[in-house]
Design brief:
Rossmann fold; Dihydrodipicolinate Reductase, domain 2; 2 domains; eight-stranded mixed β-sheet; six-stranded parallel β-sheet; 34% helix
Length: 333
């Protein structure tokens, strides 16, 4: 099987530090070009990462006939426009989450995909990480009995007003940055869509971004709750509760690339989970897995691991959470 030639639209740290290095170590990816609106930044990144081509504009990279797919790590408010431009240039698209600022923006890309015939996928790296595939299978196979509740938490501390995650006009804020992860993984493991959403949010008085939020998702027979925060002590955890057991994902979102990840299955027979069974997942880099699986889908002319429809569905839940925080009532996605 051959490889896919990739171009990177932007020199954001997530690209240069988190995504490109593992992509370069995969079976099906070949990173051939990187672009920046500052040509010197593109050349510096290309030199440091051993990328053959550097472009001083995104348009020039998209015009390169040798590039088959692009990864987009640009600010949130630029995702739809550049995913569209890349698709219209005939490039397959792996775009950082959130793929749009709302569900209507994400839905626009469905028409773009259908018109251009390329593959477009939201880069939710957790979806293809083996720990989440295993977690889903354990729950669906009944290892914790009948699933009834999900609890999650994701937080970090960042009050830098110049950080793009704190710039509301560019799609900053806690929900779009990290609150989306418990929604995504809750939907992934349950295989369900919430019928209604409730939430409370706190807004930073300076930046205007949502810095703290708690959300309830009603999946019918399963209730999910989670809290996210951008000015809290860093922490993350996801737990799934059944009538016979509890499954904990120890490091659910920022899974380490240099050591195994762990799941814990607890039957509740001892307080504090002392009798919990550890399920160890072999070491992998989730960004590399994500890109490699997307490349393989292109090569095999198969559906991408995460259908674009899934991104639209996730954004509908996010939209409902924002509406619920404003209305103080249940909202339907």
């Amino acid at each position: 099987m051959s490889t896919i030639s990739w171009g990177i639209l932007g020199t954001a740290r997530i690209a240069t530090e988190k995504v490109i290095p593992p992509m370069q170590a995969t079976t099906h990816c070949r990173v051939e070009a990187i672009a920046s609106r500052d040509a010197s930044r593109a050349r510096t990144a290309a030199s440091e990462l051993g990328i053959p081509k550097a472009f001083g504009s995104y348009e020039d990279l998209l015009a390169d006939p040798d590039i088959e797919a692009v990864y987009i790590p640009l600010p949130n408010d630029m995702h739809v426009a550049w995913a569209t431009a890349a698709a219209e240039a005939g490039k397959h698209v792996l775009c950082e989450k959130p793929i749009a600022l709302d569900a209507s923006g994400a839905a626009q890309l469905l028409a773009v995909r259908d018109r251009t015939g390329v593959r477009i996928q939201e880069a939710f790296m957790v979806h293809t990480h083996p720990q989440w595939v295993r977690a889903r299978d354990l729950v669906r196979d009944g290892d914790i009995g009948r699933l009834q509740a999900v609890q999650g938490f994701f937080s970090y501390h960042n009050d830098n007003p110049r950080d793009i995650r704190n710039v509301k006009a560019q799609g900053g804020g806690g929900m779009l940055d990290i609150g989306c992860y418990p929604i995504k993984t809750g939907r992934f493991v349950t295989g369900l869509e919430p019928t209604r959403v409730a939430s409370v949010m706190e807004w930073d008085p300076g930046s205007g971004i949502d810095r703290l939020g708690s959300v309830i998702l009603d999946f019918g027979g399963v209730q999910a709750t989670f809290t996210y925060g951008t000015q809290l002590v860093p922490h993350q955890r996801m737990e799934f509760f059944g009538d016979r057991g509890r499954l904990t994902v120890e490091i659910p979102f920022n899974a380490p690339p240099d050591r195994p990840t762990r799941l814990y299955l607890d039957d509740g027979s001892a307080l504090g989970g002392r009798n919990a069974r550890t399920v160890e997942i072999e070491t992998c880099d989730q960004y590399g897995v994500e890109a490699d699986e997307f490349s393989r889908a292109i090569l095999e002319n198969a559906e991408p691991p995460i259908p674009l429809e899934d991104a639209v569905a996730n954004m509908r839940v996010i939209d409902a959470a924002f509406r619920a925080a404003a209305s103080g009532t249940w909202e339907r996605p």
